Amino acid sequence: MSEPTHQARGGPPRIVIIGAGPTGLGAGYRLKELGHDNFLILERHGYVGGLAHSFTDPAGFTWDIGGHVMFSHYSYYDRCFERLMGDEFTLNNRESWVRMFDRWVPYPFQNNVRYLPPEACYECLSGLIKAQAGKGTVPSPAAARNFGEFIDAVFGEGIARHFMRPYNFKVWAYPPERMNKEWIGERVAVIDTDRALRNVVLGKDDFGWGPNNQFKFPLKGGTGEFYRRFGPVLGLTKDGREQPGSHIRLNAAVASIDADAKVVTLADGHTEPYDHLLSTIPLDVLFAKVLRTRDASFPATARAASGLLHSAGYMVGLGLKSRVPGGGTPDTKSWMYFPEDNCPFYRVTYLSNYSPFMTPDKDHYYSLLCEVSESSAKPTPGANGQNPDAVIEDCVRGLENAGLLAPGERANIVSRWCYYADYSYPTPSVERDEILTRVIPWLEARGIASRGRFGMWKYEVANTDHSLMQGVEWVNRLLRGEPETTIGMTYTVTEDGRNAAVHERPAHAGSGEKRLKSPGPGAGVHVARDSHVNGGTKCDATRAHPAPVGDIPAGEVGEDEVGITGRS
Ligand SMILES: Cc1cc2nc3c(=O)[nH]c(=O)nc-3n(C[C@H](O)[C@H](O)[C@H](O)COP(=O)(O)OP(=O)(O)OC[C@H]3O[C@@H](n4cnc5c(N)ncnc54)[C@H](O)[C@@H]3O)c2cc1C
Predict the structure, then answer these.
(1) Which of 264, 463, 469, 534 is the most buried (most CB within 10 A)?
(2) 421 CA to middle of ligand 1, Å?
């Protein structure tokens, strides 16, 4: 294969990045920091942030694309946040609950089954004890062939039936048998049965929140404000517009990539040559619609990529004119899980609890953000984004059924907002890692790195911190020869680019994990005690960070999306 080069004679290579989500922004930020100026980020939308963007609706409510909670596993990410946000953030307790049997069960679920009706409580405990003794329907987590069997092996029949199976189907929109078990990781396989039992017998509360389990949230502008602030660092104006010399081109949808000539063509016909390409386009879309090459192995590789599964999601925001939720006492919940079928959503976030600036006036309004998944295995009345109104109405009814909206409170809804994400969750399907083993090295061999939530397709490293760091680490590898540690994949590219990758679960995988220990002095982690505004922050990405990129060891609290946790 010919090796065209677009770098000016003796000059730095030309780097093109597709997508200004956290991955692309992280890569751009790091390039700038390392003094590499020959790069361009192409973004199809007129704004940056991707799925981490936030919108403010005409009524003055600010919405994220689903509840975004920032749990960083990286000192580098923390330093970016500190530099761009200064003190302009709130610090919130992670207070999550499960709604079932018309009552609230605190997170983590298995430590609080005493809140269930006695019969269900007994079924959960007895199943858990049997499963952990290896006497359940699946003898051990090691013997489980998929996520469904893993649930049975770890939690037993009761928890599986009442919570884990229905809840996970609502989140993922696929039966757990179609998902692998590796994305969860070994550490949630052992549950502290004695603790679960003790809490029931002694009537003990065992909540998963407190001073050690808090998260930061931008004071104004929602999650997206953090990512918006990368714009000026990369040449956009303060209000997010392009100007001469910008490293970001907005409204620049990439229509095709000629992998042989190393040229990207935009929808408007404009072309951009590259030496190295970082793509954050969903992998299946990249192969099905964007990539062009005369390479004979392309059709078979594209067929493999088409086997990746994903779900779509409706993010339904409801703004209410009411001082406190439900007309009762102030509710301090952060977010809630809904395993039952009396409502369409799997999760609802009290977004107005994250910051006093998420509504037009904190004293008179509050806001709820509902998330509803969709796939071919779980259709919704929204019909692939064609009929969002039907999903909004279902959510309002669901909130009434679940007791979050009191009778008559529907009249207080002053804003109905909906965002349809056609790519919401990358499914860790049974076949996923095998497909990635084939597809990612194939791209690498042709000068294309695919990274990020849907570029790498690894849900376990697809949060904002992981995504941003995938961009940073790719640049570190390219310019400094450092290994990438987040993608959980090591590969040597063979002649034909196949069978050359090995997967492992990276240490910083997972979401919602509390830290085991602080990264130590000099790592630059900022611990805030209170929330306040310092009025304007200056950011300079070219300033060297004080310490090398460092990782924060993962804690023992598990994946918040599945509502479970390991030994804690
Ligand atoms: C419902 C939901 C809840 C979430 N909750 C959390 C959470 O609690 N905590 C957390 O940390 N993270 C959360 N995330 C994940 C977070 O949003 C992602 O980690 C992050 O946005 C991924 O960044 P990315 O850059 O890889 O991809 P994206 O954000 O998807 O960005 C990709 C960018 O590429 C652009 N693009 C695509 N195709 C083209 C093209 N052809 N031409 C040009 N540009 C293109 C897109 O417009 C987009 O801007 C959540 C995500 C969802 C959907």
Answers:
(1) 469
(2) 10
Tokens of 564: 């479970």
Cα 128 to middle of ligand 1, angstroms: 36
Locate the ligand 1 atom nearest the alpha carbon of residue 45 and give its number.
Answer: 47
Same fold flag, 15-53+75-90+220-308+429-503 and 310-426: no
Place of tokens 């049974």: 430
Which atom of ligand 1 is closest in space to residue 423's alpha carbon? 53
Task: Kindly state the DSSP code that residue 541 receives in the 8-state scheme.
Answer: T
Q: Count CB-CB contacts under 10 A for residue 518.
A: 12
Q: Where are the domains of the chain?
A: 15-53+75-90+220-308+429-503, 109-207, 310-426
15-53+75-90+220-308+429-503 sits in which CATH class?
alpha beta
Supply 461's token pair: 């490293």
CA of 400 to the centre of ligand 1 (A): 31
Nearest CA to ligand 1 atom 36: 19
The Cα 207–Cα 435 span in angstroms is 39
Closest C-alpha among 548, 497, 540 to residue 520: 548
Residue 296 CA, ligand 1 centroid: distance in Å? 32
- Each residue's pLDDT, cut to its tens digit, for the chain (568 residues) gives 445 677 655 789 999 999 999 999 999 999 999 999 999 999 999 999 999 999 999 999 999 999 999 988 899 999 999 999 999 999 998 899 999 999 999 988 989 999 999 999 999 999 999 999 999 999 999 999 999 999 999 999 999 999 999 999 999 999 999 999 988 876 566 788 999 999 999 999 988 777 668 899 999 999 999 999 999 999 999 999 999 999 999 999 999 999 999 999 999 999 999 999 999 999 999 999 999 999 999 999 999 999 999 999 999 999 999 876 655 567 889 999 999 999 999 999 999 999 999 999 999 999 999 999 999 999 999 999 999 999 999 999 999 999 999 888 999 999 999 999 999 999 999 999 999 999 999 999 999 999 999 999 999 999 999 999 999 999 999 999 999 999 988 876 666 655 567 787 777 777 654 444 443 333 322 222 222 222 222 223 333 333 333 455 544 334 455 555 543 3
Distance CA 346, CA 163 (A): 11
> Is the bond leading into 388 cis (omega within 30 degrees of zero)?
no
How does DSSP classify residue 525?
-
pTM, whole model, 2 decimals?
Answer: 0.91
Q: Which residues line ligand 1 (CB under 6 A)?
A: 18-24, 42-45, 50-52, 65-70, 253-254, 280-281, 313, 371, 421, 424, 452-455, 462-465, 467
